Amino acid sequence: MAKKKSKAKRTADTDASLVFAMDQIKPKIERILALDLRTEEARQEHTEFVYRTLCEMAADIEKVWKAAGDYPEGVISGDVWITGADYASHAKALTQHFAENGWLKNEANASSLWVQATIAVCSHYHDLVGPAMNASADCSRRLGDINRAIEMWTAVVKDFGFLLDGYDQDPDGPEDDARVAIESLRESCLALQAAGKKTIDSFKLDKLVSKANRILARPTPKDDNE
Length: 226
Fold this sequence. Notes:
By secondary structure, the protein is mainly α. The protein has two domains: 1-123; 125-226, no CATH class. The protein is 72% helix and 2% strand. It has a two-stranded antiparallel sheet with strand order 1-2. A hairpin with a 2-residue loop joins strand 1 (199-200) and strand 2 (203-204). Helix 3 packs parallel to helix 5. It is globular, with a radius of gyration of 19 Å.
């Protein structure tokens, strides 16, 4: 799902003096989020500013990626984790904002940043990775790059398929984060089926979807207490 980062590279990057630019970039992100970009005229007026801001985000997220190294196997500083998580949150907000304004090109650009920032520091949180991957994959599909979309959906299925095994003997449905992760798995499976795929490695997509549906239909412990 993510490009491999060597331990040697990680050590060098972690030892380097890194200064992140989030404090300078965040006001620009907030300005974009306040813009009405539904018309072509508005997009042309702000296109250069949006482009520069996304480039600045990408450069800083690359710093986070290098500093994070092989995390979570390795150790990173709190500043690196917080900065990465902050960028993931803001890139998600931008993705949704561009989607609401019908600006697909920058929706795709922001969604890629969302994926990169999330994987850099939160790759072990399936509930965070899944929505980012699916959002970016769907942008690729709508832009006509079905191969990239399939690659991303496939990565989700391969990485998330095991999550269903934990519910074989559990009468309860998933809660909160686990529910989001399983919903993301189901979404990727359905997207791959729509693209003409039936299996991914040893996974049969129709069986994964059926099992996910059954698990998601079960009452959660919270539901039982209400």
